[in-house]
Design brief:
12 strands, 5-stranded antiparallel sheet, mainly beta, 42% strand, 2 helices, 9% helix
Length: 180
């Protein structure tokens, strides 16, 4: 007997991206992991079963969340574009999500030098559903978190050093398309 697996439609992937974007008010990017990796030049594989970042330093409410899609060949978009890695993406207004087939979510957070204590970190994570102890607080130390919500994305990195004069722009692009 052959087992046929149904295929998610492109519309369903746009729907998932729009649904995810709707959690923007409870999205926080966290940084953590001060302890060195066994091999600092090659951090361990990201752990999909992880539920929170390791040794959290702090969390910051994400600054920008947008639907997105890859730029098409020879395209001149009327929407803003961003570069991420070696690829270019179009930031699409939510009302145009289905028309533009925007099945990605672009997330941007600026971490200023004085947002958290200075020092090294090796891990970032995106939490959705995070609840601060104080309403409307946008920068949280671990003791300021009432509920951590769900860790949606985690990334292990080489050592990053934060000082008061360094500003970091963290960008994530989340895909709701099948992995090819």
């Amino acid at each position: 007997m052959v087992l046929n697996i149904a295929v998610a439609t492109s519309g369903s992937r746009v729907h998932e991206a729009i649904q995810f974007k709707s959690y923007q008010d409870s999205m926080f990017l966290g940084i953590g992991r001060t302890q060195a990796w066994n091999n600092e030049k090659m951090p361990p594989q990201d752990n999909e079963k992880q539920t929170t970042i390791q040794e959290p330093i702090g969390y910051k409410k994400v600054g920008k969340v947008s639907l997105a899609r890859r730029v098409k060949e020879s395209e001149e978009s009327s929407y803003p574009t961003v570069n991420y890695g070696d690829q270019e993406f179009v930031l699409v207004p939510e009302k145009e999500g289905y028309k533009e087939q925007a099945d990605l979510v672009y997330i941007e957070t600026d971490i200023l030098g004085d947002d958290f204590p200075s020092g090294e970190y090796r891990q970032i994570g995106l939490h959705v559903g995070m609840v601060p102890k104080e309403e409307n607080k946008k920068i949280l130390l671990p003791e300021d978190v009432k509920e951590s919500g769900t860790l949606m994305v985690v990334e292990n990195r080489q050592r990053q050093n934060r000082t008061p004069d360094i500003q970091v722009k963290e960008i994530l692009i989340l895909s709701f398309a099948p992995i090819a």
